[in-house]
Amino acid sequence: MGRLSYLAVLAGCLLGTLPLEVWLGTRVYRRPRRWLLAVAPTFVLFVGWDLYATSRQHWSYDPRQTTGVLLPGRLPVEEALFFLVVPTCAILAFEAVRAVRGWPAGDEPGSAAEPETGAEPVSGAEPVSGAEPVSGAEPVSGAEPVSGAEPEP
Amino acid sequence: MTYTQLAVLAAAAAVLVDTVLLRTRLLRRRLYWTGYAIVLVFQLLANGILAGRGIVRYDPHAILGPRLAYAPVEDLLFGFAMVTLTLSVWVWLGSQGEDRPRAARRRRTAARARPGSATAARRVRRTDTRRSNTR
Q: Among B38, B63, B118, whose Cβ lies nearest the Cβ of A93?
């Protein structure tokens, strides 16, 4: 593989996670604005870390296994791409689990993390106390194991 | 600072982002931990190739020494910090209505700028819907 070794690892990450977007409907690449905004802080902070680490020789790259294309700060282009590819793969994995299991993340419309919709009047659904003694009863804890185990956001 | 110190610092900072700064509280969700477990497996694989083949080489003086799948244990904290920060920002953006059409986002921002006008903003949106229905 030679000088393309590092690039090949990154390509493997992207190709390996592509089925999640295509078949599980993770909709990460199809929300480019949110995707790029989510990756941006990680990219900036970790590139900064990388520049510091390489300047102090915490780690270094094998010139025979990288393309040799260097960005400012002598940062191999592969290393910069790493900080885009890996966070993207993490989001894809996260969304894939959500797509398969349906577990909440806290960003769903109507969740408490979204104040505006959370403030939507739910009071109408509140049963008048005593009017419906059966449905007004306390729900048995653990009756809904999936949502019950999730902490209220 | 050594890689070890920076890795501990980064992991702690990522936890603070999730719990205090953005309050996404992902660390309390099984969705997060399941996703992280999957990422971890592939991190060990990809990192194992990078470190095992010597594509990335570490200075023995900057790390503790123990290695997991050829990579220094510090890489676990490095990965944890990267994944946690990214997912926290991702979920935070979603909770801010990042997926919604731009017009709805703008209205929401305007509503937030004027406290107490959320109801008014909602009323406006309902009117919009009604209008578009008759169109």
A: B38
- Is residue A153 included in any domain, yes or no? no
- A87 contacts B91? CB cut-off 8 A: no
A32 vs A36: CA distance, rounded Å: 6
The pTM (predicted TM-score) of the whole model is 0.76
ipTM: 0.78
Q: In this complex, do A59 and B59 lie within 8 Å of one another by their Cβ atoms?
A: yes
C-alpha span between B49 and B47 (Å, rounded): 5
Q: Cα separations (Å) of A98 from A95, A101, B32? A: 5, 5, 9
Domain-located, residue A76: yes
DSSP letters spanning A24-61: S---STTSHHHHHHHHHHHHHHHHHHHHHHHHTTSEEE
> Rounded to an integer, what distance in angstroms lies between the CA atom of residue A42 and that of residue A49?
10
Q: How many domains are contained in chain A?
A: 1
For A44-62, the pLDDT digits (tens) are 999 999 999 999 999 999 9
Distance between CA atoms of A79 and A43, rounded to whole angstroms? Answer: 10
Whether residue A120 is contained in a domain is answered as no
The parent domain of residue A64 ranges over: 2-101
In chain A, residues with a C-beta closer than 8 Å to the C-beta of B98 are: 31, 33-34, 37
| Residue B125 pLDDT > 60 | no
Measure in Å the smallest separation between the Cα of B3 and chain A Cα atoms: 6
* Joined tokens for residue A22: 């295509």
